[in-house]
Amino acid sequence: MVIGQFLKKVGAVVAAAVALAPAIALAQDAPVEPTGYAAPGQIHLQRSVTPVMDSIVSFHDGILMWTISLIVVFVLALLLWMAFRFNAKRNPTPASFTHNTMVEVVWTVLPIIILIVIAIPSFGVLSDQLTVPDGERKYLGSNIFSFGEVDVPAPELTVKATGQQWYWDYQYVDQGLEFSSLMLQEDDRTATKPAQPRLLAVDSELVVPVDTTVRLQVTADPQGVIHAFAVPSFGIKIDAVPGRLNETWFNSRETGIFYGQCSELCGKDHAFMPIAVRVVTKEEFATYMAAFEGGDYTAANATLAAVQ
Predict the structure, then answer these.
(1) Do 178 and 184 touch, CB atoms closer than 8 A?
(2) With contact defined as beta carbons under 8 Å apart, do 166 and 272 qualify?
(3) What stretch of H or E contains 169?
(4) Rounded CA gap, 238 and 223, in Å?
(5) How do residues 168-206 score in pLDDT, each as one tens digit?
(6) Does residue 209 surpass a pLDDT of 80?
(7) What is the DSSP letter of 171?
(8) How is residue 234 annotated by DSSP?
(9) Which of 98, 152, 220, 287 is a Cys-bridge partner for 240, taking CB atoms 3.0 to 4.6 Å apart?
(10) Does residue 100 sit in helix, strand or coil?
(11) Cβ neighbours of residue 55 under 8 Å, at least 6 residues apart?
(12) What are the tens digits of pLDDT across the range 230-281?
């Protein structure tokens, strides 16, 4: 009777999950405002605006989701079968053997095969993240099982991000221009940028042009600690190590402000060194850089629409 009640409860839970599945899928497919950061209650990845993030979302929603779902269903079926078939009432005299060679071979070989199948596209996605475009190499995009189908132009802009304790320094390498970006305290945020997210809004955003490949060089202050530069909507996450220059890239197809954070436990203010990248049109960026030539970020920023 206990087993019967248990199976009924499990059946009810499964039925509810199946009934809710279409609603959950539709909620995930619904258009999301281009906020550039996670919305309240969001359970999925942030909306992609770059080829690399396209491949990450495809990898997650495709092979990873199918694999883990099948594993969960298979293990649940085994548990239910064991509870039903081998309970004390149905099987009062347990078997005396302790090993089964075939079962041990299967549960060793099968996970290896699964990991290999997952690893193939995974290495492709990782390679895309760490290989700066040269104008000839193609990238996976949303088809992670292709040999590359997305054309990405060579970098037109190089930005160096340096992790400090606890804020970011940015440098437009070719132009020799640099500035610092610090998180806005709550009073300053509500007074100057009330519409921007708490703990993510900064005083000075990194400004880059849309539809442009940006080479991103990342390091940390030589006297500092290890940080990590991560912007989820771009699909980039790379360590900032003192004395080492790491490199990645992004090419945003949308304008707006996209947020990230240091994702390495770097010390007492780890949670308070956000990243804000403002993507503008190429015309706006040209005007911005022309005003920035004198080294005055405030004057350059004044050429752009005010951030509220």
Answers:
(1) no
(2) yes
(3) strand 168-172
(4) 19
(5) 999 999 999 999 999 999 999 999 999 899 999 999 999
(6) yes
(7) E
(8) G
(9) 220
(10) coil
(11) 124, 125, 128, 139, 140, 141, 142, 144, 235
(12) 999 999 999 999 999 999 999 999 999 999 999 999 999 999 999 999 999 9
* Token duo for residue 61: 């929603």
Cross-strand bridge partners of residue 14:
none
Element (H, E) at 161: strand 157-163
List the Cα angle 107/17/85 in 5-degree steps. Answer: 45
Which among 196, 199, 206, 171 is positioned nearest to 279, based on CA atoms?
Answer: 206
Report the alpha-carbon distance of residue 123 to residue 140 in Å, rounded: 11
Confidence of residue 55 (pLDDT cuts 50, 70, 90): very high
Residues 6+ apart with CB under 8 A from 87: 3
Q: What is the number of residues in the chain?
A: 308
Asked whether the beta carbons of 274 and 258 are under 8 A apart, the reply is no
And the tokens for 105?
A: 């071979």
Looking from the CA of 223 toward its CB, the CA atoms found within 13 Å total 1
Q: Which residues of 243-261 are buried (b: 16+ CB within 10 A; e: fewer)?
A: eeebebbbbbeebbbbbbb
Cα distance between residue 301 and residue 170, in whole Å: 14
13 pLDDT exceeds 70?
no
**Among candidates 217, 210, 208, which has minimal Cα distance to 277?**
208
